[in-house]
Design a protein that fits this description.
CATH superfamily of the largest domain: Ribokinase
Number of domains: 2
Structural class: alpha/beta
Number of strands: 16
Distance between the termini: 35 Å
CATH topology of the largest domain: UDP-N-acetylmuramoyl-L-alanine:D-glutamate ligase
Oligomer: single chain
Strand order of the largest sheet: 10-9-8-11-12-13-14-15-16
Length: 497
């Protein structure tokens, strides 16, 4: 049986809504599935007690209570505080209006102990306290509620995960509900499959609740959960990411500026460009927000490698390629930088650096962001035109190169050689020059926010595409890459906060 982590489940749940399946519908289906299992497995259990926490697991419990009431069962609910989640509150308000359902709201262990006879009254107890929402040590009144459920002789039906059980490891730090049946949703959480969890899980039932398979494949708002975008009150400059951009040449000065500004718009503290003198001077003239360190000459060469390698030590991520060109020693210098930095610093490789690295394999964290032509140069393989074929090919080549590949196109395909994600945001207006450089900056920024390079690249593609959609909605096919930069903060704020 294939398991899923609690984080992966959270992401799938949110991305299902992005695909058009409301989370309220998923909660309704989950609660109805619990009620159905109680009704069929315990047909003679007339008295049902549902114990609800304040999160979405409690929301599932309120739905189950409503359906069990509809099945003709006598239902009592103990709420461990009023719901703090919007969807749970909607279903809490729904059961409050049912005069045939008894509801008690408690805030303390003493209030729970005063209802101990409710636990003894029950023929079945539904545990909807924590589910996957356990964080650290158990708090009150949750700990007392778990104790009272375990003391009661009635069989327990756990909603998604027995409360107190770690959904990812199956470990129990303090105490957990010992369920006769656990009704989990979509896929079993990995902790439920652990040997140590068996005595708490009981019979494991997996119920589909309407999450489509695409919710685990398509990048959506849920993927922001992989990024740490929070800021501490005592933070100082640099704590939230430092990105070094290696790019630019005599002919191309704008590309590295787009990379650096996109990284700043995505939330890093410092974005520094190291570039040949003409590109560095142009970067300084274009924006006061970026720092540009000049390299002697008109283009990257072997004599610059040592300086860049030493400089990179002060940064969290290095983005390399935009605007470098392919003249003279530039490809050799790019290859040498790659060999020296791979395994030491996370790298985002784009544009001319991709062309220079054909035949290379990666060490450490490396993200390649090619379009179809660059993909062929990098891998020697023409990407198929159909989506399924592209997914297979990108996954195979990412595994071969030991890297993450983000193949840009109508649908962006991202793989680390094992997992595959597809981004569907974006529009034809984004064929304008510079949008790929913005994507590189986003990927570099998000690499400072997560240890998962696949998710950094996938979420970057999602944000880049949505910024393009917002810019096109305002400006039509007359947008520029600079317009994307203005939209990035609003996109991130929309989904991440």
């Amino acid at each position: 049986m294939e398991g899923i982590s609690s984080l992966e489940m959270y992401v799938a749940d949110r991305n299902a809504e992005w695909l058009g399946v409301p989370r309220l519908m998923l909660m309704e289906n989950a609660g109805a599935a619990v009620a159905r299992n109680v009704a069929t497995r315990f047909p003679n259990a007339v008295n049902v007690l549902v114990v609800c926490g304040t999160g979405d697991n409690g929301g599932d419990g309120y739905v189950a209570a409503r359906h069990l009431h509809g099945h003709g069962r006598r239902v009592r609910i103990i709420a461990l505080g009023e719901p703090r989640e919007e969807l749970a509150r909607l279903n809490y308000e729904a059961v409050r209006r049912l005069w045939g359902v008894e509801l008690a709201v408690v805030q303390s262990p003493l209030e729970l102990l005063a209802l101990q006879d409710w636990f003894m009254w029950a023929h079945v107890i539904v545990d909807a306290v924590l589910g996957t929402g356990i964080r650290g040590a158990l708090r009150e009144p949750h700990a007392t509620a778990i104790e009272l459920m375990n003391i009661a002789p009635a069989p327990k039906v756990a909603v998604d995960v027995p409360s107190g059980l770690d959904p990812d490891t199956g470990e129990v730090r303090d105490k957990a509900v010992r369920a006769a049946v656990t009704v989990t949703f979509h896929k079993p959480k990995r902790g439920l499959l652990a040997e140590a969890a068996r005595r708490y899980v009981g019979e494991l039932v997996v119920e589909p609740i309407g999450i489509p398979p695409e919710a685990e494949l398509v990048v959506g708002p849920g993927d922001f959960a992989y990024l740490n975008l929070a800021r501490r009150p005592d933070a100082k400059k640099g704590d939230h990411g430092r990105v070094l951009v290696v790019g630019g040449s005599l002919e191309y000065s704008g590309a590295p500026v787009y990379v650096a500004l996109a990284a700043l718009r995505a939330g890093v503290d410092l974005a520094v460009i190291v570039a040949p003198e003409p590109a560095a001077a142009a970067a300084k003239a274009q924006s006061p927000d970026v720092i540009a360190i000049p390299l002697e000459g008109d283009r990257l060469s072997m004599k610059h490698v040592e300086k860049i390698v030493a400089l990179a030590e002060r940064f969290d991520v290095v983005a390399m390629g935009p605007g470098l060109g392919t003249e003279g020693e530039t490809p050799d210098a790019a290859r040498e930088l790659f060999r020296r930095l791979a395994g030491r610093k996370p790298l985002v490789i784009d544009a001319d650096a991709i062309k220079a690295l054909a035949g290379e394999t990666a060490r450490g964290v490396v993200v390649f962001t090619p379009h179809a032509g660059e993909f062929k140069v990098l891998t020697g393989v023409e990407p198929p035109r159909d989506l399924e074929g592209r997914m297979t090919t990108v996954r195979e080549q990412a595994a071969r190169l030991n890297a993450v590949i983000l193949l840009k196109g109508r649908f962006d395909v991202v793989s680390d050689g094992r997992r595959v994600k597809v981004n569907t945001t974006g529009n034809p207006a984004m064929t304008v020059g510079g949008t790929g450089d913005v994507l590189t900056g986003l990927a570099a920024a998000f690499l400072t926010k997560t240890k998962d390079p696949l998710e950094a690249a996938a979420t970057a593609a999602f944000v880049n595409g949505l910024a393009g959609e917002d810019a096109a909605a305002e400006l039509g096919y007359h947008m520029t890459a600079s317009d994307l930069l203005q939209k990035i903060p609003k996109v991130i704020k929309r989904f991440a906060f």
